[in-house]
Specification:
Layout: H1 13-19, E1 22-28, H2 35-45, H3 54-59, H4 66-76, H5 83-99, E2 102-109, H6 111-115, H7 121-139, E3 142-150, H8 155-165, E4 174-178, H9 190-198, E5 202-207, H10 213-223, E6 227-230, H11 238-246, E7 251-253, H12 255-260, H13 272-277, E8 282-284, H14 289-292, H15 296-306, H16 312-324, H17 330-350
Parallel strand pairs: 1-2, 2-3, 3-4, 4-5, 5-6, 6-7, 7-8
The structure holds adenine (ADE) and zinc ion.
Zinc ion (ZN) binds near residues 229 and 287.
Amino acid sequence: MAIDFDRIARERLPALLRAMPKAELHIHIEGSLEPELIFRLAQRNGVTLPYPSVDALRAAYAFTDLQSFLDIYYAGASVLLKEQDFFDMAWAYFEKAAADNVVHAELFFDPQTHTDRGVPFEVVIRGLHHACQRAHAELGLSASLILCFLRHLSEDAAMATLEQALPYRSHFIGVGLDSSERGHPPEKFARVFARCRELGLRIVAHAGEEGPPAYIVSALDVLKVERIDHGVRCVEDPALVERLAAERMPLTVCPLSNVKLCVFKTMAGHNLPALLAAGLVATVNSDDPAYFGGYLNENFVQAFAALPQLGPREAHTLARNSFEASFVAPSVREGWARQLDDVFAAAAAAT
Ligand code: ADE
Ligand code: ZN
């Protein structure tokens, strides 16, 4: 039965955005470390932080671009030393995600941030994997891990990380590419991604966040990605927009992140409505929620509040896209899409 979106009043939108089932496909788990947990882990592990208090740390969260954020983000991750620390971080995220009606999450993690400090790879992945298993068992939330290579480091370093990860091949579903984008184009990692494809890993990459549309093109053509993380600068290349739409190539868009990192000056100036209007498979995600002012529902609510072009139909499309773009079996994601339809049909009937 068709959903009559026009029957859903705008004032009911925030509640509907919160209630609808959704998948999160772009969350750096290290970016979910809240200042309170950073301080708790610092104390537990005897790590001295360059900030005297939680409030002083939070006050430093005023970013001018991606690099200004990454400097603080990597410093925050320095408190993670033990398997239990990685578990606690991911578990705190899962509790928040479940409260946001996230039914499925694909979590990025940055092993090099930890192994370069002497934390063994297996400590990182065991803690995260255990949290994923418990999220499924106790919260009914399906979760998987995507290993990201740091693009400011060398391809040889990425290849060495992949080798370290192979004994844990069953614990992660794919690989991504993150960190400082400008000056580090996807083609720098052509060989390591070719190896990952041979291994049957799913492939994603950050592209077109701060970097030019040409980086999106090389992520597609050289790395052969299955999703683009961010991708908002695609609109500067109309032929690329047409290609992304024709290929139904998903974009994992992160509205609060884009405003906090000055990719857009304001939420009202975000191009999410234009991406949807162009027929792109856009999704909404939180990126680094502890640093950018909110988890997934906050991203939806703030984007819809600032952008009048976004209404109930777009809410449904974005949630449906999140299931389509996920790396789960079609039978499972179709089940979630039916739940989504039921939530919207009930909202239309109740108005
Ligand atoms: N690592 C964590 N958040 C990131 C972002 N928004 N872009 C690139 N790398 C990141
Ligand atoms: Zn990201």
